[in-house]
Amino acid sequence: MKFAQYPSLDNRHVLVTGGGSGIGASHVEQFYRQGARVVFIERDEAAARSLLDKLDEQGRTKPVFLHADLRDIEVIQAVIADHCATCGDIDVLVNNAAHDERHELDSVSVEYWDERIALNLRHLFFCTQSVVPGMVRRGGGSVVNVGSFSWRVGLGGMPIYTAAKAGIEGLTRGLARDLGQQGIRVNTLVPGWVMTKRQLELWVTEEGKAEIQRRQCLEELVMPDDIARMALWLASDDSRMCTSQSFVVDGGWS
Ligand SMILES: NC(=O)c1ccc[n+]([C@@H]2O[C@H](COP(=O)([O-])OP(=O)(O)OC[C@H]3O[C@@H](n4cnc5c(N)ncnc54)[C@H](O)[C@@H]3O)[C@@H](O)[C@H]2O)c1
């Protein structure tokens, strides 16, 4: 297969959250291969370092790794401000990080609820807040919020995660309305069941694969690069009149 190269992404300054592994690592790699200047926030240092070792093509700007936990908003605000002071304003924000830990209704405490919302929803707002003044200075920008098909198809076993993911689509629509006048576009990228290392290790059993065959229209599995390629398009000038929308990449499941 042959995929697009976007001239508008060349040298674009792209911030990815949770970029050390899974779909986030695909975002980092795909933007890097487009010639973008990529920076990513990640709490897993080992994963981030091994990704960086892989991305060392001559003539390309190596991504910048910022080691931080997205649950700590004050730290995140400081880390983004420091980075922008040195490397310039951000053009594209991919709010990717999340964690789909399963939980039972009875076992959820107030602390656990708050922690899951902090991990799956809160940082998307505050990362956006941190980069918007720079996007305004640059004359516009693109924010890509990574949602999930899970709440749309009614998956159980993780109601806080699905509530947060539904909330992301509301956040997108509210921010798109508020930021459109400044040339900033905000969209939700909705993945289906994506074959990351973590999903393959934890959940993709033979039964899981049979479920995919039953539910998707397309037979092939959805891979992390399939999600990242939609982020490329949403970040590029090619999608210049798209904002406040949800773009689903799920092989036709939902
Ligand atoms: N994989 C799927 O099937 C699937 C389906 C629907 C939606 N999604 C969404 O796609 C996005 C990426 O998912 P994934 O499957 O690649 O997840 P993953 O768990 O494989 O990777 C998430 C990355 O984010 C990092 N991260 C998590 N919490 C962090 C924190 N507090 N601070 C800093 N870094 C943190 C992790 O260390 C990891 O590198 C998420 O928003 C997820 O909800 C994934």
From TrEMBL:
Key words, A-Z: Oxidoreductase
SMART domains documented for this protein: PKS_KR (SM00822)
Enzyme class: oxidoreductase
InterPro entries in the cross-refs: KR_dom, NAD(P)-bd_dom_sf, Sc_DH/Rdtase_CS, SDR_fam
Enzyme Commission designation: 1.1.1.175
Signal peptide: none
Pfam families assigned: adh_short_C2
Gene Ontology molecular-function annotations: D-xylose 1-dehydrogenase (NAD+) activity
Domain Ketoreductase: 12-158
PANTHER family: OXIDOREDUCTASE, SHORT-CHAIN DEHYDROGENASE/REDUCTASE FAMILY (AFU_ORTHOLOGUE AFUA_5G02870), SHORT-CHAIN DEHYDROGENASE_REDUCTASE FAMILY PROTEIN
Family the entry assigns: Belongs to the short-chain dehydrogenases/reductases (SDR) family.
Name of protein: NAD(P)-dependent dehydrogenase (Short-subunit alcohol dehydrogenase family)
Source taxonomy: Bacteria, Pseudomonadati, Pseudomonadota, Betaproteobacteria, Burkholderiales
